[in-house]
C-alpha cells in the first residue's frame, strides 16, 4: 500500500530507494552544518569546502548503501562483524608499537578506522543473531549476544576511545532490548551495571577519564584546566539567550574562548549564535529524524530489518543526547561529536551509510509481505 | 518447522517490537524535552549571569591616565609641567625573529647589554600581545635615528607618555615638593581612602609640598578604553573610550621673581626666607636653603643622589621654613610687650634701670644684657628699639610662664600654622605642663627669665614667626598662611578661600600702636637695631631683629664668633612688615650660624627682599598676568 503511494508521489526518489522525509531532514542538518562550521572555524572558507566535500561523500555513501537489497545486507552481517573484529585486534597489536591512542590502521593504500566499521557491523550482527532465532530471545541467545557486544566494546575501549565503545555497546544492547528482553532482566542488568560502576572507576578507567568525570561533577574545581571546556561552553550557550547573538557574532567562539568549537563543542557555537529559538528548531530536526527512523523500523517487513533500523535510530539518538548533554553540562565530557553537524569526516560517512541502511530497509520490500 | 514458526510468530514479534518501540519513543521524547528544559535553564534563567561572564571574558578595561594639572606662580610662570618622554616598545607577536631584531637595534641605538638583558627578562614574563619596553626614556639622538629607520622595524614603535618636570630645579622645591613613583605605602593609603581605582593608570603621586597637599586637585580622573580581547589577551577592537578628566591647574601665591631673589640671598647659607601678604596670608616667597633638584625624585632617585641628600650635614631635605625650630630670640619681644601692656604689668611709660644684667631676688645667677654696660633707664618702646634684654627679663618674670605660654599660643606659637603643605612642625612654646611631660621636671623661674628674650626651650619655625608678625602688622588678624592662590576648574579661575584664626582683640587697642611705633623705630630710628640695614628706604618699614644663641654660654664666658666652631655660632633672625602704616607684606628671616647677629646679617637680607617687592618697575604688568590665564 505504502509503496504504491510513494511510487505515485515520488517515482524518482523511489527508483533510487530514498525515503523523502528522512532525506529532507538530513539535508536541513547538513546545510546547518555548513553554516555553523563556517562560523566556528573563524570564517575559514577552506574548512567549509572540506566539510562540503565530506557531506557530499557521505550522501554518496548513503545513496550506494540504500541500493543494497535487504537480503544482501543480512548475508553480509556476520562476515562484516568478523572482519571488523580482526581489524580491531590488528589495530591493538600495531598500537602497542606506537604510543598512546591508536585508532587508525594503515593498510598500505589508505588508513581505515575499524571502529567506524563496527558502528554498523555490531547492530547488523546482533540483528542477524537474534532474528535467526526469533523474538523474544532465549537466555542462551542473550548470553551469546552479550558476548558479541562485549568483544568489540572492550577492544575499542582499550584504544582508548570511550565515546565510540559506548556507542557501539549501546547499538548492540538496543537490539537486545527491542527484541523483547524481559523487563526483569532489564532491571537486573541496570542494577548490576550500577554495582559495576565502582569497579569501572577503580580498575578500568584511565586517569584522564576519571578526571573528566570529576570535572563533570564540579567544573569550577579547575576552571582553567579540565573544567575550562565545560565552563566556557555553558557561558557560550547561556549568553546566547533566546534569540542568540546572530550568525558569526558569537563572542565566545569568534574570540576563541570556546575550545574544540568546530568539532565536539560545535553545539555551543550554534546555541550562542542562534539562541533558544535555533536550539528548539535543531532539536525538532533531530527529533524528526529519530521518529522517522522509528516509523521505518516499525514498518520494516522482517525482524532483522526492524531490529537493525531500531538500533541504528536509537544509537543516533544517543549520539545527539550524549553530545548535547555533554556540551550543556548534563553529562561528563566524552569525545562524541554532534552527529551531522560537527566538522569531521569518518563518523559522518558512517552515519550516512547507516541512514542508507535505514532507507534500504524502508524501500526494499520482499515478496513475502505482498503475499500477506 | 523453522519456517512455520517464523510465519506464525511474525505478527506476535511485530507486536512485541511495536510495544518496545513505543516505549523507546516515549523515552526519546522525554529525553529530548529534558535537553530542551536544560537549554531553557541556561539560555533563559541563567542568561543574565552567563551573559555577564561572557562579557567579562572578552571586555577588558584599559585605564587611561589623566594629565596632571600644571602649577603656575601668581603671575602665570609655569613651575611644574608635564613633558613628553618617549619609550621604545616592542610587540613580541609581530616580530619574526627577536634575536635578529635586537642585533639590528643594538648598534643603531647604541644599546648596552644590560638594557637588552632587562628586556629579555621582561619578555619571558609578558604576554605575547602586550607591549614590552626596550628603552624607557629615549634620548634625542635615539629618537631621531629610530624615526628615520622606523620602516625597517614593524612591530617596534615609539610610545609617548607625560612625565612631571620642574623647569626651575631647586628654586621652588620646598614649596612645590615633587611627585615620585607610587609605592606600596601609597597604594595602601589610596585603597583605604577608596581612591585606588582612580590611580589605575597613574605612575606617580605627589609626595611632598603642594604636589602632595593638592594631589586631589592636580590628579584628575582616570579614563577607560574598553577593548574586546580574544582568549590570548590580544586586543581585537576598541569598544568605546571614556576620556580621562585632566587635573586642575593651580596658581600659587608665590612670586617667582621674589623667590629667585630670596634664593640668591641665601646662596651658600643655611636658613629660610618667608614673605607673606599681610592682608590675606598668601605666601609670596618661601625659600629654605640649601635646596635640591626635585627632578631627581620623579623617575626614582638614584642611590648615590639619595645618600648625598640624606647624609649632608646641611640637611637639604629639611624644609627650614616650616620644619626648622629656631629659638625666636628678640624677634618675640614685641609680642611679649603687647602682653605686658595688655595685662597692665607695665604701661607705655613704665621704666626700669638696666645695669647690663638682671638677677632674681635671692638668687645668685646674673642674666646678662647683650650690652655689657647696660641701657640705663628703659621703657617698653626703648626696650624694643634697642632690644634691651634686662627689661624683658624683668617683664617675663613678672608675667610668669603660664601667662606667657597662654598668650603666645594666641600668636600661634607652639601650634601648627595650618599652611597648605604637610611638612610642618609645631615647634615648642614651653609651659609647665610641657616641661613635665617632656622631661618630668618642674618649671624654674630662671627659665621664665630666658623665655623673656625668646630663648630657653622656646623654638619657633620661620612660618610661625611670619604669622605672629602678621598679627602685629594687622593689629590682631591671624591668617592661615597659604600657598594656593587659585585653581582653574572647567576653564574658570576659582580663588582659594582665605582662612583665619580668631583674631587677637586687645582691651586697649592703642597698645598695638605702642609696639608698632617702636618697631618702626627699630628700622628707622637713631638707635634702631636695624637702622643701618634700612637706611634711605623709599618706603617706611617696621621690624625686629634677633640674635639667637645656639649654645648657652657660661656666666662669665665671652662669645667670640670668629673663634668658636661654625655650628655653634649664633643664628641671625629678623621679622618685619612694610609699608609700616598700611602693611602689605610680612617678612621673616632665619639664618643659621652667622658671623654677626640679626641687625647686621638678617636685616640687610630683609631689606633686599623688601626692595625687590617694592621695585614696581620689574613687576609683571597685569596684561602679562592675563595672558598667562589663557
TrEMBL record, chain A:
GO terms for cellular component: cell division site; plasma membrane. It is found in: Cell inner membrane; Membrane. This is Peptidoglycan glycosyltransferase MrdB. Peptidoglycan polymerase that is essential for cell wall elongation. The keyword Lipoprotein does not apply. Pathway: Cell wall biogenesis; peptidoglycan biosynthesis. It comes from Idiomarina xiamenensis 10-D-4. Its EC number is 2.4.99.28. Belongs to the SEDS family. MrdB/RodA subfamily.
Amino acid at each position: 500500500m505504502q509503496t504504491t503511494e510513494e511510487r505515485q508521489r515520488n517515482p524518482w526518489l523511489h527508483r533510487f530507494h530514498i525515503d523523502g522525509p528522512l532525506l529532507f531532514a538530513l539535508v536541513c542538518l547538513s546545510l546547518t552544518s555548513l553554516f555553523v562550521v563556517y562560523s566556528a572555524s573563524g570564517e575559514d572558507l577552506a574548512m567549509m569546502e572540506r566539510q562540503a566535500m565530506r557531506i557530499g561523500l557521505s550522501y554518496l555513501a548513503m545513496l550506494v548503501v540504500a541500493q543494497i537489497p535487504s537480503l544482501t545486507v543480512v548475508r553480509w552481517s556476520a562476515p562484516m562483524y568478523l572482519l571488523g573484529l580482526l581489524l580491531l585486534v590488528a589495530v591493538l597489536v600495531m598500537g602497542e608499537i606506537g604510543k598512546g591512542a591508536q585508532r587508525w590502521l594503515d593498510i598500505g593504500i589508505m588508513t581505515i578506522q575499524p571502529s567506524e566499521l563496527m558502528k554498523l557491523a555490531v547492530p547488523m550482527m546482533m540483528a542477524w543473531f537474534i532474528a535467526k532465532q526469533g523474538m523474544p530471545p532465549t537466555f542462551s541467545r542473550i548470553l551469546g549476544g552479550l558476548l558479541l557486544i562485549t568483544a568489540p566494546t572492550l577492544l575499542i575501549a582499550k584504544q582508548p576511545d570511550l565515546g565510540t565503545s559506548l556507542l557501539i555497546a549501546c547499538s548492540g544492547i538496543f537490539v537486545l532490548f527491542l527484541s523483547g528482553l524481559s523487563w526483569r532482566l532489564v532491571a537486573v542488568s541496570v542494577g548490576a551495571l550500577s554495582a559495576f560502576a565502582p569497579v569501572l572507576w577503580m580498575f578500568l578507567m584511565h586517569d584522564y577519564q576519571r578526571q573528566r568525570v570529576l570535572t563533570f561533577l564540579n567544573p569550577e574545581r579547575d576552571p582553567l584546566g579540565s573544567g575550562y571546556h565545560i565552563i566556557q561552553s555553558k557561558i557560550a550557550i547561556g549568553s546566547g539567550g533566546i534569540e542568540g547573538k546572530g550568525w558569526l557574532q558569537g563572542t565566545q567562539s569568534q574570540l576563541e574562548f570556546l575550545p574544540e568549537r568546530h568539532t565536539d563543542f560545535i553545539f555551543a557555537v550554534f546555541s550562542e549564535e542562534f539562541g533558544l529559538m535555533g536550539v528548539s528548531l535543531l532539536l525538532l530536526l533531530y527529533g524528526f529524524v529519530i521518529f522517522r527512523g522509528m516509523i521505518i523500523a516499525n514498518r520494516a517487513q522482517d525482524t532483522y530489518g526492524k531490529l537493525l533500523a531500531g538500533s541504528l535510530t536509537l544509537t543516533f539518538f544517543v549520539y545527539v543526547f550524549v553530545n548535547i548533554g555533554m556540551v550543556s553540562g548534563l553529562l561528563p565530557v566524552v569525545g562524541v561529536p554532534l552527529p551531522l553537524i560537527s566538522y569531521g569526516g569518518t563518523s559522518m560517512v558512517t552515519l550516512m551509510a547507516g541512514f542508507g541502511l535505514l532507507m534500504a530497509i524502508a524501500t526494499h520490500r520482499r515478496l513475502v509481505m505482498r503475499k500477506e | 518447522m523453522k519456517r512455520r514458526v517464523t510465519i506464525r510468530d511474525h505478527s506476535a514479534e511485530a507486536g512485541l517490537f511495536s510495544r518496545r518501540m513505543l516505549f523507546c519513543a516515549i523515552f526519546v521524547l522525554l529525553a529530548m524535552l529534558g535537553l530542551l528544559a536544560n537549554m531553557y535553564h541556561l539560555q533563559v534563567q541563567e542568561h543574565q549571569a552567563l551573559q555577564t561572564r561572557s562579557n567579562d571574558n572578552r571586555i577588558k578595561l584599559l585605564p587611561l591616565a589623566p594629565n596632571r594639572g600644571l602649577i603656575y606662580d601668581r603671575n602665570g610662570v609655569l613651575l611644574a609641567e608635564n613633558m613628553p618622554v618617549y619609550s621604545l616598545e616592542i610587540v613580541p607577536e609581530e616580530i619574526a625573529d627577536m634575536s635578529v631584531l635586537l642585533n639590528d637595534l643594538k648598534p643603531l641605538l647604541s644599546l648596552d647589554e644590560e638594557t637588552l638583558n632587562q628586556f629579555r627578562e621582561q619578555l619571558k614574563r609578558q604576554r605575547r600581545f602586550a607591549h614590552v619596553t626596550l628603552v624607557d626614556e629615549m634620548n634625542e639622538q635615539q629618537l631621531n635615528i629610530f624615526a628615520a629607520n622606523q620602516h625597517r622595524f614593524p612591530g617596534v614603535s615609539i610610545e609617548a607618555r607625560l612625565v612631571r618636570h620642574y623647569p626651575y630645579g631647586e628654586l621652588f622645591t620646598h614649596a612645590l615638593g615633587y611627585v615620585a613613583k607610587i609605592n606600596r605605602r601609597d597604594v595602601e593609603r589610596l585603597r583605604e581612602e577608596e581612591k585606588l581605582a582612580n590611580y589605575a593608570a597613574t605612575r606617580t603621586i605627589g609626595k611632598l609640598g603642594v604636589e602632595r597637599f593638592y594631589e586631589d586637585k592636580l590628579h584628575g580622573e582616570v579614563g577607560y578604553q574598553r577593548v574586546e580581547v580574544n582568549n590570548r589577551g590580544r586586543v581585537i577592537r576598541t569598544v568605546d573610550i571614556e576620556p580621562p578628566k585632566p587635573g586642575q591647574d593651580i596658581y600659587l601665591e608665590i612670586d617667582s621673581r621674589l623667590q629667585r631673589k630670596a634664593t640668591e640671598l641665601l646662596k651658600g647659607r643655611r636658613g629660610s626666607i618667608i614673605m607673606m601678604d599681610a592682608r590675606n596670608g598668601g605666601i609670596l616667597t618661601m625659600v629654605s636653603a640649601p635646596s635640591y633638584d626635585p627632578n631627581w625624585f620623579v623617575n626614582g632617585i638614584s642611590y648615590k643622589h639619595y645618600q648625598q641628600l640624606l647624609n649632608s650635614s646641611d640637611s637639604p631635605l629639611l624644609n627650614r621654613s616650616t620644619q626648622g625650630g629656631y629659638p625666636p630670640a628678640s624677634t618675640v619681644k614685641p609680642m611679649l610687650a603687647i602682653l605686658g601692656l595688655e595685662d597692665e604689668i607695665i604701661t607705655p611709660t613704665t621704666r626700669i634701670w638696666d645695669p647690663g644684667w638682671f638677677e632674681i631676688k635671692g638668687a645668685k645667677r646674673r642674666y646678662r644684657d647683650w650690652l655689657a654696660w647696660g641701657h640705663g633707664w628703659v621703657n617698653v618702646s626703648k626696650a624694643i628699639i634697642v632690644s634691651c634684654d634686662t627689661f624683658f627679663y624683668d617683664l617675663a618674670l613678672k608675667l610668669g610662664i603660664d601667662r606667657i605660654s597662654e598668650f603666645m599660643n594666641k600668636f600661634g606659637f607652639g601650634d601648627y600654622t595650618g599652611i597648605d603643605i604637610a611638612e610642618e612642625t609645631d615647634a615648642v612654646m614651653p609651659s609647665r605642663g610641657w616641661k613635665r611631660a617632656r622631661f618630668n621636671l618642674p618649671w624654674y623661674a630662671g627659665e621664665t627669665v630666658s623665655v623673656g628674650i625668646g630663648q630657653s626651650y622656646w623654638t619657633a619655625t620661620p612660618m610661625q614667626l611670619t604669622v605672629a608678625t602678621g598679627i602685629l602688622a594687622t593689629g590682631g588678624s591671624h591668617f592661615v598662611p597659604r600657598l594656593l592662590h587659585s585653581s582653574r576648574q572647567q576653564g574658570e579661575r576659582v580663588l582659594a578661600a582665605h582662612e583665619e584664626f580668631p583674631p587677637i582683640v586687645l582691651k586697649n587697642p592703642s597698645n598695638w600702636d605702642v609696639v608698632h611705633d617702636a618697631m618702626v623705630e627699630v628700622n628707622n630710628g637713631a638707635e634702631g637695631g636695624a637702622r643701618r640695614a634700612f637706611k634711605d628706604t623709599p618706603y617706611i618699614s617696621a621690624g625686629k631683629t634677633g640674635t639667637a644663641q645656639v649654645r648657652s654660654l657660661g656666666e662669665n664666658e665671652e662669645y667670640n664668633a670668629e673663634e668658636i666652631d661654625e655650628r655653634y655660632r649664633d643664628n641671625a633672625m629678623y621679622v618685619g612688615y612694610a609699608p609700616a602704616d598700611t602693611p602689605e607684606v610680612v617678612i621673616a628671616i632665619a639664618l643659621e650660624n652667622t658671623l654677626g647677629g640679626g641687625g647686621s646679617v638678617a636685616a640687610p637680607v630683609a631689606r633686599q627682599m623688601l626692595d625687590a617687592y617694592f621695585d614696581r618697575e620689574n613687576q609683571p604688568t597685569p596684561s602679562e598676568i592675563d595672558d598667562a590665564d589663557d
